[in-house]
Amino acid sequence: MTPDEVRSAFLGFCGLTQCRKFARSLVKLPDAETKFDRLRYWQEALWAKFLAAFPDAPDDVDTIGSCLHWCDLHHQSLLTGAGHQPIDLRHSESFDMAREHEFPFGFGWLGHHCPECRTSCIDWIALHPTECRMLQHRVHDAEWVARHRANQEFLNTCRDAYIPADEIRDGDEIWMINTGRGTDSLALVRDGTIVPIVD
Ligand SMILES: [Zn+2]
After folding, report:
1. For tag attachment on the chain, is the N or C end more exposed, with fewer CB atoms within 10 Å?
2. How much distance in Å is there from the Cα of 22 to the middle of ligand 1?
3. Tens digit of pLDDT per residue, the chain (199 long)?
């Protein structure tokens, strides 16, 4: 079977969702053009069923990997390097839908991505600020924060909101944010970017 035949047969065999999960979970070894790590247990079980239906399909992980490490939307191999994942991306159903349909291999910390998916993901986020923006409104401006940095009531608020009070610098602001998971919360914002909580 040619790689194209393997891809389309496998897609028809297990469906789009499972096929993408299979592709995303294939781990390419670094510094090797066509070397893949082993199949995971669920991949091996699925591939065995596929082989029973398509005995001519490849059965070694490197050939399987080079056929299926592939973006089914843009018809190209996945490249090494993480997808796009800004830390202040708000979770939303519309983003999940867009990811599924427009950039299935462009988002996330995975070690590989499709460059066209990645670009689509960046464009989609830029075009949908309401869905994607965690920042809701400013609660305290930099001047207010500077004046209240040592205020016990403010420090208590910081503690309750998991804001690292020791990390506050000149110019920092306090914003109400919505992560898309649960209710609004307060966050420390520096130069328009949320300062991540460090455990
Ligand atoms: Zn793609």
Report:
1. C
2. 15
3. 999 999 999 999 999 999 999 999 998 887 777 789 999 999 999 999 999 999 999 999 999 999 999 999 999 999 988 899 888 899 899 999 999 999 999 998 778 899 999 999 999 999 999 889 999 999 999 999 999 999 999 999 999 988 988 889 999 999 999 988 888 999 999 999 888 776 5
Taking the centre of ligand 1 as the mean of its atom positions, its distance from the CA of residue 142, in whole angstroms, is 41
Distance 100 CA to ligand 1 centre (A): 11
Check if the beta carbon of residue 113 is closer than 8 Å to that of residue 81. Answer: yes
Task: Name the maximum alpha-carbon separation found in the chain.
Answer: 73
